[in-house]
Amino acid sequence: MNDRFFTHSPQAQAKAAQGIKRAPEDRYTTLKAMQDLRNIWFSQFAGTLSTIYRDELPLASYPAASVVPYVLDDAYRPVLLIGHIAEHTQNALHNPKACLFMREHRPHGDVQNQWRLSAIGDLLPVPEAEIPAISARYFAHYPQAQDYDATHHFSFFRLHSKKFRIIMGFGDIRWVSADAPFSHPALAPDICERIITHMNEDHHDAMRGYLRHLPDAPQNIPDDAQVLMTAVNPYGCTLKYGDGLYFQPFEQPATDANAVRDALVALAQAHRD
């Protein structure tokens, strides 16, 4: 087979390295990348974690990857529950460098035109003092995980991202600093608890309405379905239905309890009309 069909000339490689020429209004800006990144970041609850095999293993310095569920903490950092015997645990304790990768899963079409997001940083154990709050948050999303310790010891790890790499399609690519997309800090824990408790006690109908209008939610949600709120932040709230988790974004960031209430009421009214 003639290799010329598979080998780009030096001139072609140099041209590709210069990037794709676009009109200014069509360029994929850092601002747009941060908006896309936020939308993805809050709507995903699992990704592919890669860590580095430790020195004493035959595959030392090679990456190890597997799928992991996670939740976000108050600083929007992924928190993972990993078994002590897992390679990721042993790898991270020797070398914290890690990557959490997620991608779009459309069944048809060119995968290169679907979004991809990588968070690159250090995977570190969650300090003991934070475990009660972190475990309550994690188990609210994944209640079945409370039984994992019956088989193997599990520990919480947190990814401290340094950079994001976002790709929204061919040529729509950006590096983004880890703190850049999140200009609004998390709501105070007591505010979150009050909102979540109130919604779960009094507003199941509204949350079923939210869920029915989300594009990734199941169809034909019954009128008596139990939909629970598991998290809320200025950008939206997380809903749990069965084993699924779904993010309901707010139209505008809600930075206090009153703003969150207004956002939730507006969503309920919009879905009722």
TrEMBL record:
Domain CREG-like beta-barrel: 40-179
InterPro entries hit by this protein: CREG_beta-barrel, DUF2470, Haem_oxidase_HugZ-like_sf, Split_barrel_FMN-bd
Single GO cellular component term: cytoplasm
Annotated DUF2470 domain residues: 193-267
Xref: Pfam families: CREG_beta-barrel, DUF2470
Protein origin, superkingdom: Bacteria
Protein name in UniProt: Heme oxygenase, HugZ family
Organism in which the protein naturally occurs: Suttonella indologenes
